[in-house]
Amino acid sequence: MSTHIILKSIHLKSIFGIIWLLFCTTFFGQNKEAPLYTILESKVFEVPEIFWEPSKDQGDIKALFYKTLDYKGKPTRAFAFLGIPKSDQPVPAMILVHGGGGRAFHEWVKIWNDKGYAAIAMSLEGYRPDETGSGKFTHEYSGPQRVGRFDDIELPLKEQWMYHAVSDILLAHSLLEDMPEIDANAIGITGISWGGVLSSLVSGIDDRLKCAIPVYGAGFLYESKGHFGEYSGNNPELEEKKKFWDPAHQFTVGSVPTLWVNGDSDAHFSLNITSHSFEVTEDHAFMSVHPSMRHGHPPGWKPNEVPEIYAFADYMLKGKGFPLGQIIKQPIGRKIKIKYISEVPLTEATVYYLNEELTYRKIPKDAKHPQPNDWQKMAATINAKKHTVKAKLPKEIKTYYVNLKDERGLIISSKLVQL
Asked: Which of 45, 108, 43 is closest to 81 using CA atoms?
């Protein structure tokens, strides 16, 4: 475990209920629902029944269904790909959570297998693939499908897609935990886009996890200046209800070591919500912001594009390599002075900035989604002996963040600052 971060010793669920109402009243307004882990069925923490599906195996990666929660009185099963590399010792494992429009990706499983991890990628919208491992087809045990952005919020809780998606992820963890080939004490989770939303939410309720890596998706979704935060109707009360599923409800009181990953111009999840999510988890979290990072599954899992994901997992789950660096004094104002810790020397420090507030607009005007103006950049000065980074910003700069890159090419980022 990194000496650079102060980890909370335990997820104190025994006292959580006492503080929950006060927390919700002050932090989330009128949303006073009971904590999610008290509402979920206890069987999500039990080993589900497995139904192997060899006709859809992809080489060494096995296809299966596992039993999930009943939906409207009907039994359901989730399809998944599971890969376990050969080893004389139990191996660490990752839970892989797809985004909107996604599926169970065997390609994603293979990336992790090749790095020495077991991995499971499940379909969370009731789909199964064809024999090539591609396509999305419903089946006789399909559960609910996602309805917009929490647009099924007025249905009974146990009929809402998020309830089942979260439960399916927890069951996948329980499945991995029971396998003798897998180290039950070295299981992490990563998710992309909607999977980032789900993986960050689950990190707040599943303290069995040893690390979480949400990509794009984060908490405080209603603050997003991108597509995800767009108001979707004329019913403020309904929009307020949807905040029940905001991941910050859960991870704000969690303690799972977390790496937040996003681009600085993502059309769906704007950088301010990633930064906000990082700030409220900063005692056990890191953030890596990639300039102009594309949105999608491959950009969110390719090792050469987001190497921080794999370095973070290696350190947290294998004790391999060095930890990511950590900014221990965040920038403020125009006269930047950052303090950092890093076991690997830094090679670059760069300030990315806008001469306006973080504002989303359609560029060009016929673009599908709005985005901010192009970020400008300027170099900052590294003092390796004092472990500081300094820069003095021109008065016209209104918004910025700072990236520190080490000799491995790994990026850690400061919080977003809006002047």
From this structure: 108
